[in-house]
Design brief:
Layout: H1 2-17, H2 19-46, H3 54-82, H4 85-88, H5 96-122, H6 129-140, H7 142-153, H8 157-172, H9 193-206, H10 211-235
Helix pairs in contact: 1-2, 2-3, 2-5, 3-5, 3-7, 3-8, 5-6, 5-7, 6-9, 7-8, 7-10, 9-10
Length: about 240
């Protein structure tokens, strides 16, 4: 527990010291909320009617939040890689797995707070907190996925930027499922957040949870995280 507290203090210092991480963790999500709350309704009222797409727009905007926090997670780990902390962990009382779990959980909780409040702040969709809770958890699980993939694939921060841009495009692809009127849309199910989007759409259109979509989503994310943990430990 003492080691975790030290890591927590160090994380807060690093985020506050690094303007890029500070803006990514706090300013950019706030800008996304303001844009979604003010600009999209204005566009809908004055330029082109968008009300029928509010659900899809909400999913797109909400997905950017864990992407931003995944960016923070990825770069914190990269800084610690450069400082050889992962090597030092071998002789410290805290295990590598404990470190990884802490690292993923800390930023994911911050991400979850933003995500769970997103419907209230943006006003694009009308959904109860209880109904939205499992969706919020699934969205927050993107945070460690993004951070781990970047560290597994990229060897430096320049490569990591390219990885994050690529992942950003990939994780938006499931939105096209809402413009496909047949079962071919399930081809996009190979992308984990497809199931999150389907579960949220089910609530918005019928008012009921789809536990099949939620179950597949949770299993998919947990298996993916397990594989990423394994690959990360194998690489470092």
């Amino acid at each position: 527990m003492v080691q975790i507290r030290k890591l927590l203090r160090n994380d807060i210092r690093n985020i506050l010291r690094d303007r890029l991480l500070l803006y990514t963790a706090f300013l950019i999500p706030l800008i996304i909320i303001i844009f979604t709350r003010l600009v999209i309704p204005w566009l809908s009222e004055n330029i082109v009617p968008l009300q029928q797409y509010y659900g899809v727009l909400f999913m797109m905007m909400a997905t950017t939040v864990p992407m931003m926090f995944g960016f923070v997670t990825g770069f914190l780990i990269m800084d610690e890689r450069d400082e050889n902390l992962l090597t030092v962990l071998r002789v410290m009382p805290i295990s590598r797995n404990t470190y990884l779990i802490y690292r993923m959980a800390f930023i994911s909780i911050l991400s979850f707070v933003y995500i769970i409040l997103f419907p209230i702040f943006t006003g694009l969709i009308n959904i109860s907190i209880l109904d939205y809770l499992p969706i919020g958890v699934l969205l927050a699980l993107f945070t460690p996925v993004m951070g781990l993939v970047a560290n597994i694939v990229a060897n430096n921060k320049v490569q990591a930027f390219a990885v994050f841009k690529t992942l950003g495009g990939v994780f938006f692809l499931p939105l096209f499922a809402f413009f496909i009127n047949n079962d071919f849309k399930y081809i996009l199910g190979v992308i984990p957040n497809f199931w999150t989007f389907m579960a949220l759409d089910k609530i918005l259109t019928t008012g009921q949870q789809d536990y099949v979509f939620l179950g597949i989503g949770f299993v998919f994310h947990l298996i993916l995280l397990g594989v990423l943990f394994y690959l990360f430990n194998k690489k470092y």
